[in-house]
């Protein structure tokens, strides 16, 4: 596994890959068709250890075949064990790998695999766009990327534009259903949105252009800009526009002409770059780099807004470690250390939620609710088993019920000292009017929990920690903070 950390176990990683990355299906394919050696995992050697940069799905599939007990689900585990009968594990105990000289050269091979001509699952557009955006933001030019990667300069430029547009979309105040669709990068079709802004009339209607660094230059008042952007997003999500509807230039022209006729939009507004100033407070401001005679690379703007929140903000809980973490969050550079900010912020949120519930005796209530739910589920399973046994002609009622539960593994005594997960605590808070009387705060928290945010949830957090190409975006972190700050202020005020 690549870059494992002590806080994430192999079992948790494999659990994620089974649930989200179809590793179990891949394992079954290996059993039925054998292990294909034409797509060897790509690794790099660092500090005397090999790290898998590409091929974690295949390596994990082999791991669970060699040791099926790594599979948490007993049903899935037993199914694999049955399929393994007669399978020669010797062919996967040692795997041939490609050792890349460096991570940079590994990147070239990985992109080549995922962008065409390979049996490896292709990246969706946004994954590829994020990868290129990271490289470009770190200082590589379009020319340099085109020299190293199997992509043309035009493809790279389109990718950078598309990613900046996607980030703009992800910050819109959309309805819950639409926002969830946008956050699901594998399903939201950026290609269909791209069809609109690549059309001359479409770009004019949306009211923006691209700067030299492929960021958006907005040319409409904020209210009008958001209104038009949101409408196109809703039409993409609702499948009102797709590759068939916008198949030709004339189709897109007609679609835009029809939108202009609607009373929803003020089409009398003339495009003007002066409106871009309305967005300055929300965007990362830039200062020019100091000139260096020795530096031959083009200069990137240096961001001045590099913190998650203003240094003037003070949250004091009275709990030493929590307050220390808050002060550390102030220091971290969100541009250079987005992953550290994400992990630390999640820990901070976890501790705040726990202390708040503890102060309200909510932890005890939450634990009891969970135990009641588990007991109810166990009883339901037991009744189902009894029903099946009765069908087989077995007089279940004549049997000792406790002994029967023990035999079928439903005699577990649930402990009330388990620490609830972050998601469990936040869901409990969002549903409790007694804990948070302000309905708007609860509603905002509920919307946040239902979004596809990377900072929450067992699977998303594992992916953030261990996956080489799943990173925390500064813009997303700032958005999460802005959503959660009012709730945090309330929770902290109640802890004191």
Task: Kindly describe this structure.
This protein has 496 residues and is mostly helical. Helix content is 55%, strand content 5%. It has 22 helices and 7 strands. The strands form 3 sheets. A 3-stranded mixed β-sheet has the order 2-1-3, covered by helices on one side. A hairpin with a 5-residue loop joins strand 4 and strand 5. Helix 2 crosses helix 3, helix 19 runs antiparallel to helix 20 and helix 20 packs antiparallel against helix 22.
Secondary structure elements and their pairing?
Elements: H1 10-20, H2 23-33, E1 42-46, E2 49-54, H3 56-66, H4 74-83, H5 90-93, E3 98-100, H6 103-114, H7 125-137, H8 142-148, H9 153-170, H10 176-183, H11 190-197, H12 200-206, E4 208-210, E5 216-218, H13 222-237, H14 249-260, E6 286-287, E7 302-303, H15 320-331, H16 338-359, H17 362-391, H18 401-407, H19 422-430, H20 439-450, H21 458-466, H22 474-495
Parallel strand pairs: 1-3
Antiparallel strand pairs: 1-2, 4-5, 6-7
Helix pairs in contact: 1-21, 2-3, 7-9, 12-14, 15-16, 16-19, 16-22, 19-20, 20-22
